[in-house]
UniProtKB/TrEMBL annotation, chains A, B:
Gene3D superfamilies: 1.50.10.10, Glycoside hydrolase, family 65, N-terminal domain, Maltose phosphorylase, domain 3, mpn423 like domain. Keywords: Glycosyltransferase, Transferase. It holds the Pfam family GH94_b-supersand. The lineage of its organism: Bacteria, Pseudomonadati, Spirochaetota, Spirochaetia, Spirochaetales. GO terms for molecular function: carbohydrate binding; cellobiose phosphorylase activity. GO terms for biological process: carbohydrate metabolic process. This is Cellobiose phosphorylase. Its EC number is 2.4.1.20.
């Protein structure tokens, strides 16, 4: 069952039923100021940090779901409704929510009155525009009472939830003209406030929640909306809110637009006050004046759309498959930009108060957006590298505001360092900018320990070499990519974190996943050294890679697939010898991407085993059989019920590893089959089961052992976005940046006749047509660049800023 | 305006309007298993620790207020309602909530169907009984559909709110017969589960929230209740709930009772499972069988009442003032017991996830309950003392589960140590048990550092002596009792805690409040030494006390009142020289309780200044004038808006210090005036303004500078309970335990003709009649014990376990 449709021309998903199986959300803002908004206008806003600078309050996991947001109420002659259906939930005559690129437009109508609400944040602006347009489609004059509503968060979102004995006394507001100012704690250490304005005179307002809603009423039936009046209340503590009350008269056929703005202002300490106790409102007035008419708002909205035209223009595919086109050209790139902005902090599953930026996460996310914003990718790489330790290891996360590493969620995850090679190499291949390697980058944020960035990559590489276990395989440390496979943490206390408890750290537990990672990105390191002319460095590194490949083949192969690990006791994990968890996806993915034992057929065997044992109608599960009891020697993975999360769930992040592995042995049909099983556009028809948005990836889909296989969870903030984008664009569609140009290496289903790619690359543009006359999976027969044949399958970088035409014929 | 009335005979407050100005709550349970319940049956339950073992989910600061609880729904032929009005909010024909001693009974009726719901936790039992009685008062047969409902918390209340990407996958239940089992995480590290049972066959059940309520419905209109059916749903992740569905037929005039039980079970690791994946239910079945009939429940309820008869029998007053009687005999003692159990952890303002037991809080709370449960008081004192450091200083809090100190909310509060003298002396005077002083008690929980408890008291005393400032007054450290007067923390960052930031620790800032505290409890220390025959110890201590008194008189007196402190720069705080915060309550309270400069008239002057500058119609404010801007050198106190919390709010905790100070100079009218201004029973008529329960104290009432003076906040968990009980019983009513007996020292309003006290004391009982023929405030003219005149005003302890009659005539 579908709840809407894709409008590709407008780059929108259009929701036509407000009662989606779960709130379907969108993100507003792209730089410092952000908002989350659901299809019924629930959600919240923050400045830079969703924990420390939360502007509006939101309650997760509430009943009903998704309670609290930017709400508009209409009282049309006593008939009360909201354009987004919620919170009032009065049946609408029509409803539509358009989630676009950084904007959302929700329109509802009742009794021939239509209300359109447009939400967006102009580029570089610290405020959210809400344009409300009322249209009287009846033949009578309508006198309408419009109420805006939002609830202020008292800045620190965590304290806001918990420290009520303080918070209930601190709320402070001011109201001047049509602007409501939220100045809680401004008197003291905060040099910032928020405001909510509207571009016309108001008939009243409310700032005290209980006055507006009533203690025992809800968002669905605020007392003042029911009564068609406002209290002009000034909040003193308790819960400050902001509501404008506007009476409007609309002639038959008339349309009126009202512009609201929710803004954030920082003020110099010296200029905080207009007069004693009265805040300096000039910065707010300046912001308001920028968008105080519908025309100015429309112009800003056009600018926003134009900026997305530009951001999304680097890689465009034109194929017979509209789901593929919309994923690659629009939604997957869009999701990559959101994960760049949010990391794992704020979604409808991540509350925004717990997690900083992950070392591992952020390096991987980068492969999904480096082509869109290369200069921001460069900054991100250097920020991450600066938190690394001299021995190559890393804090597992760092804070975006301070850019310093911390061990709040542990350290000593031995895969972490290698991801820095992936991100750096991806950046250089995309941009050709080798100067990043010469940047002086601190270790552990200590400037006195700065070294050229290249040395960080070397430290990453040798961190593995210096931490090998009994089989010559990489020690896993606290965990590798799978945070929940905790081989050195034997925990019996339910209040311990598996990520920070560390009571068995030994020198035994080894990871085959890191082994594959090492061979794969080690080769990248070697290639980079060669490009830089560091041949000895390259040769030395190659010897370690060769040794690792041998170790994997000798002690990492279980007969039909790659082992997952050796545990604390030196026992095999992910072996046919095990009763449960016989096979895991991660080592199959990385060892086949690294092509370990490819010539001996190990890759093909391993991938066939994946197909046989891990594949399901909804994607590839993480392990099989699922764990049905707690294994103290494995840790968190075995705490989940079978089929969920790391315990045999379809952890979408790692599915593209297998897709790429399949392309490495040329099996394009299977690679694309895996792609289309989890790419959300393909799941639109089963939205009732999938539950999550059909336009973005989930972290996890319930696996075949689960109660309801195919049910998605934790949409939006997942490394899945970057990895699937990387897999489909570079390895399936096969247009891949290399140091010297674009490699053309499609690995596609045999049924495809061909497709076109438009690729911007370091200022040039390549219009590539790929034909597949022989119904092959893989193989480039000929490549013609601007009318001239090129040997091999690399389009050499021109560097002339021009448009180049490329004709590719697949063949043997 | 009143919302109910006191039923003193039953020791109940009876609420007759469900829409109280704020949820009015009660506590269930007295030992390990607890529940909070509001007058509309909102609230939650936990085992021992409100953070780590939360059984049911609760959302603080929700809209509507108080959402989530133990709900019963009645579908009576399509008419849907709840006995507690909420959550359905259908208008009831009758409503009554009786909050009693550890139980709550809520009764509602609609259309001649009455539903009575009784909630309590039997003594020592780890389960809550819910007895639902339906009475058909109509003349027709009624077919009623009854639904129970609660929502499970996934044990760790903090994680439950925040870690949704995990929690949404972990929920697991089992259902067998009429019992719903919540076994989330039982598979792994939890050796405990919860259950919800009912003592009759059911027609169906639900354990999946969305199945029962519907994603977009609320607690007020669950889909299955509306439809009169259940889904027999089994939760797999998301939000597990428990709902029984029972169809009942009631003849005209018939009454039926149904017994529900919400229980907690711990299981040995070896006996966790009945069979693979099936939990061991025997312990639950055993619990259920104890109370599986209405008769068994009624017997347990009688036992509970009897236990409160006993707990409340130690001190009974009989006076002309029914508010005084009900406060002293029932509600104040009851609140003291709740603060003993909860400290500051779980109320409707304290979320239960943040705070452990306070060193200072717990010592003070003890003076409110030592007469009720002396053996538990003894244990508490020793637990607290064991967290002390060898130099006398203390962790500011410790965890009740581990009993270890931690510095999560700071340390180095220089008042902390002295409170240990107060609690210990109070304990010995109440019990005569000097053996506590010989108990070997560790420092910093290190058994190797154990010393006799007496040495802890000495360390407390000398911690002040060893930490004096430039004026010979006590250094304040991080803060004294007023956590928000932060004289060594100059904070500019809004994300810093004033309690843990410590960037200016100097040797200048001194506290007059600690000076008073030192003199007062120092004298107790000296007296104790003398009783123990440690005369040299006593003399040495007395010299320090004398010096302190001189220092206060020399540098701590501002002319009309006691200074509050010297700040980091050595400037006066709480002086007429200051522009704001000229006078503070704490130093007036403690210096007058300690009688510093009493002979010179300083106490009288100081207390007159309190009357003139700090008193208000709703109590005594903390300071005056209120701070209107942020003083970085004063810290958090100046962050609050004027009139709230520590910034000139009526912080009720310190009002009794002034009451006692007034009794020290014999002004009984004024002492009692202050008492009756904040004692909640006297505020019943202004409940609309006061908002909070009229049967328990608040932490804070808005002061005269506030927007709404008299508005209460943060009821229940406050040191106010202990201090007011101590002040009214020992210093106003004036029956006070001393080492050798009961001192009779009333200090009452002149208008009182007399009153009676019945006091149990170390096994004896004293029936004391006090007559005031000359309309005095103070003074005992004669005291007749069992017919024989006694010199002075001390009733010597008999120790014969008998009832003794005491006749007291006041006079000069």
């Amino acid at each position: 069952m579908k709840y809407g449709y894709f409008d590709d021309d407008n780059r929108e998903y259009v929701i036509t039923d407000p009662q989606t199986p779960y709130p379907w959300i969108n993100y507003l803002g792209n730089e410092d100021y952000f908002g989350l908004i659901s299809n019924t206008s629930g959600g919240y806003t923050f400045y830079k940090d969703a924990k420390f600078r939360r502007l509006t309050r939101y309650r997760y996991n509430n009943v009903p779901v998704d309670t609290g947001g930017r709400y508009f109420y209409i009282n049309d002659g006593g008939d009360i409704w909201s354009p987004g259906w919620k919170p009032v939930q009065r049946q609408l005559d029509s409803y539509e929510c358009r989630h676009g690129m950084s904007y959302t437009k929700i329109t509802g109508s009742v009794n021939d009155l239509e209300a359109e609400t447009l939400f967006f944040i102009p580029g570089g602006f610290h405020g959210e525009i809400q344009k409300v347009t009322l249209r009287n489609k009846s033949k009578k004059v309508k006198k309408v009472k419009l109420f805006s509503f939002l609830e202020w968060c008292l800045w620190n979102a965590e304290d806001d939830m918990n420290n009520l004995q303080r918070n209930y006394s601190t709320g402070e507001v001011e109201v001047e003209d049509s602007v409501i100012y939220h100045k809680t704690e401004y008197k003291e250490r905060r040099d910032h406030y928020a405001f909510y304005s509207v571009n016309r005179p108001i008939n009243g307002f409310d700032t005290d929640r209980d006055s507006f809603i009533g203690l025992y009423n809800g968002f669905n039936n605020p007392r003042n909306v029911l009564n068609g009046e406002s209290s002009d209340s000034i909040a003193h503590g308790w819960s400050p809110v902001a509501s404008h009350f506007i009476e409007m008269e609309l002639q038959p056929g008339e349309e009126q637009s009202v512009v609201f703005m929710l803004g954030y202002v920082e003020v110099d300490k010296e200029n905080k006050w207009e007069s004693k106790g009265v805040i300096n409102k000039k910065p707010a007035r300046d912001m308001i004046s920028l968008y105080d008419t519908a025309e100015k708002v429309d112009a800003a909205f056009d600018d926003l759309k134009a900026s997305w035209d530009s951001l999304l223009s680097s890689y465009l595919v034109e194929s017979h498959d509209e789901n593929l086109n919309r994923m690659v050209n629009i939604w997957n790139q869009y999701q990559c930009m959101v994960t760049f902005n949010m990391s794992r902090s704020a979604s409808f599953f991540e509350t925004g108060i717990g997690r900083g930026m992950g070392f591992r996460d952020s390096n991987q996310d980068l492969i999904g957006f480096v082509h869109q914003v290369p200069e921001r990718a460069r900054e991100r790489i250097l920020d991450i590298a600066a938190t690394q330790f001299e021995d190559g290891s890393a804090y597992h996360q760092y804070q975006p505001l301070t850019k310093r590493g911390n061990d709040a969620i542990g350290g000593n995850f031995n895969d972490d360092p290698l991801w820095l090679i992936l991100s750096t190499v991806s950046y250089i291949k995309e941009t050709g900018d080798f100067t990043i390697l010469d940047e002086m980058v601190p270790f552990d944020n200590d400037e006195s320990k700065a070294k050229p960035h290249f040395d960080h990559l070397k430290a990453s590489f040798y961190h593995v070499v210096n931490n090998l276990g009994p089989h010559g395989l990489p020690l896993i440390g606290r965990a590798d990519w799978n945070d929940c496979l905790n081989l050195n943490c034997f925990s019996e206390d339910p209040n311990e974190s598996f990520q920070t408890t560390n009571n068995k750290m030994g020198k035994t537990a080894e990871s085959l996943m890191i082994a594959g990672l090492f061979v794969l990105y080690g080769k990248d390191f070697v290639e980079l050294c060669k490009v830089l002319g560091k041949d000895e460095e390259a040769a030395e590194a190659q010897r370690h890679i060769d040794a690792m490949e041998e170790a994997v083949k000798k002690d990492g192969w279980d007969g039909e697939w790659f082992l997952r690990a050796y545990d604390y006791y030196g026992k095999k994990v992910g072996s046919d010898e095990n009763e449960e968890g016989k096979i895991f996806i991660e080592s199959q993915g990385f060892c086949t991407m690294a092509e370990i034992g490819k010539d001996e057929g190990l890759c093909e065997k391993a991938l066939d085993s994946v197909k046989e044992r891990l594949d399901s109608p909804y994607g590839i599960v993480l392990n099989n059989p699922a764990f049905t009891k707690y294994y103290i020697e494995y840790g968190e993975i075995s705490t989940y019920p079978p089929g969920y999360k790391e315990n045999a769930g379809i952890f979408c992040h790692n599915n593209p590893w297998v897709m790429i592995g399949e392309t490495k042995i040329g099996r394009g049909d299977r690679a694309f089959e895996y792609y289309s099983k989890i790419a959300p556009a393909y799941l639109e028809d089963i939205s009732e089961l999938h539950k999550m948005e059909p336009y973005v990836y989930c972290q996890m889909i319930a696996g075949k052992d689960a109660y309801k296989p195919g049910e998605g969870k934790n949409s939006w903030l997942t490394g899945t976005a970057a990895w699937n984008y990387y897999a489909v664009t570079q390895y399936i569609l096969g247009v891949r940046p290399e140091y010297n140009g674009l490699l053309i290496d499609p690995c596609i289903p045999t049924g495809w006749k061909g497709y076109k790619i438009k690729r911007s690359f370091r200022g040039d543009t390549y219009e590539i047509t790929i034909d597949n006359p022989e119904s092959l999976n893989r193989g480039v027969f000929s490549l013609i660049l601007d009318g001239r044949k090129v040997d091999g399958n690399l389009i050499p970088y021109a560097g002339d800023g021009k448009i180049h035409s490329v004709q590719v014929i697949m063949g043997k």
